[in-house]
Amino acid sequence: MTRALLKNWIPYRYKRYYAFAAFTIISLVLPFIVINGNHFLLLSFDYFQFHLFFVKFDMQELYLIPILLMILFIGIFFITALGGRIWCGWMCPQTIFRIIFRDLIETKILGIRKRIKNKQKLPEEGQYFKKLIALILWTIISIMAAANFLWYFIPPEDFFVYLLNPLEHYLMYGILIGTVVFFVYITIKLKEDFCIYVCPYARIQSVMYDTETIQTIYNPLRGGKIYENETKIFNHKRDLIKVEENAECTLCDSCVKVCPTHIDIKKGPSQLECINCLECIDACTEVQSAFNRPSLISWSNEPANIEKRKPKFFRPRILVYAFVLFALTIGLFIAGSKKEFMLLNINRTTQLYKVKENRVVENAYTFLFQNTDNIDHTYYFRVVNNEKIKIKRPQKSFLLSAGKKVRKIVVLSTSELLAKNDRLDVALPVEIEAYAIDNKNKIKVLRSSTFIYPRFDKLSK
Fold first, then answer.
1. Would you tell me how many other CB atoms lie within 10 Å of the CB of residue 97?
2. CATH code 2.60.40.10 region(s) in the chain
3. Model confidence over 402-449: pLDDT tens digits?
4. pLDDT tens column, 313-330
5. What digits encode the pLDDT tens for the residues 326-377?
6. 203-211 long-range CB contacts below 8 Å, 24 or more apart?
7. Which of 15, 41, 55 is nearest to 335 (CA)?
């Protein structure tokens, strides 16, 4: 990065701010976008519903959840193998929280910290009033963040109503308060130790890397070898001594001062604490631009640095992950497109059958209907595979409101001789088609059950 190019260069820190702003706006706005009463993403335990891409699914239709979980985990493998801990540095809520609290509130607004570019220097003792103000400001923001989190489980239109009735919704209040306390603790007290010691992603990331994984890389060929077995090998008596002849690193440690997780990237790649925030690249770029040289630190990998080539993005592991993600996404849309706008469960009653006069045989069932559409419908049903079995009860169709359930006792009967068995009752398969009279082509379901026909001696009596 030369001085001429530096004029048009945008630091990665600012690019991260743009990414944080976009991520925050999207997460805040999405819960308020409603189409035909459906949300983009909502898992409602109040109504036992799951909304995805503005389509509502009931709990009986949660076959989509396993597909979503597979997409989540394969997506993590894909992103990590491709770009290391890019999620941690650019989208993780904990990282965003620390940026807001440390860089905005503590540094820019209150001046508790002196410089954003020196994260190793702790705030001076005292300043208790400013620290109290910082705590209050962050608590207010944490309340907003906790509420935003709950909006994906309790839609905003219900959330704000529930807030007015704390005694009736004490569980929601408890989760809200607990989440606020958690956000305050991990941001103010735990800080980057959450990323290093608590977050499970940090524990498993190394097994997802390969030699071509993009990471924050220091170039020892240009800068010189600074560490040997994690021990500095340069002369400690001089701050700016060259470690090797023609080495370009000035040992200014600007990359160390700016690091939020307090590491020295010159020790080498794959350090567990590195979150790919790329702020060390910004710091080194400014220093090296004074010598009309590009940064010694880049977002690349060791083979690409040594061989002076671009990283290999299209490699077998990445292609396999991409194919699986594509297949799962297609499967998700196919499964979602097959949503049933009515649900029907058929259960037999405890009594197998009744035999009435003139050899009329009746079977009773319990039909549980649910209207999963957004509008009211009028329903009825019929036996589709046996014309000799008729519906005796109910004789009329019925109206069911949107989202409601109804239980119906259904009696099927026949006066025809369906079987002649002198030893056993006969279970005959029946197919029941239930449908919405006002939209039969779109809203209909087919269910299987059995019709028990008595043995012949009982029928004769």
1. 21
2. 342-460
3. 878 899 999 999 988 888 888 888 889 999 999 999 888 888 889 999
4. 888 888 999 999 999 999
5. 999 998 888 777 777 888 889 988 888 888 888 899 999 999 998 888 788 9
6. 205/80, 205/84, 205/85, 205/272, 206/270, 206/272, 208/76, 208/77, 208/80, 208/81, 209/80, 209/81, 209/84, 209/270, 210/81, 210/315, 210/317, 211/301, 211/302, 211/303
7. 55
pLDDT digits (tens, 9 = 90+) for 34-82: 988 889 999 888 887 888 888 887 766 677 788 888 998 898 888 888 8
CATH fold for the domain made of 342-460: Immunoglobulin-like (2.60.40)
Does the structure show a pLDDT above 80 at 159? yes
Q: Cβ distance 101 to 186 under 8 Å?
A: no
The answer on pLDDT for 4 being more than 60 is no
Residue 380, number of CB atoms within 10 A of its CB: 16
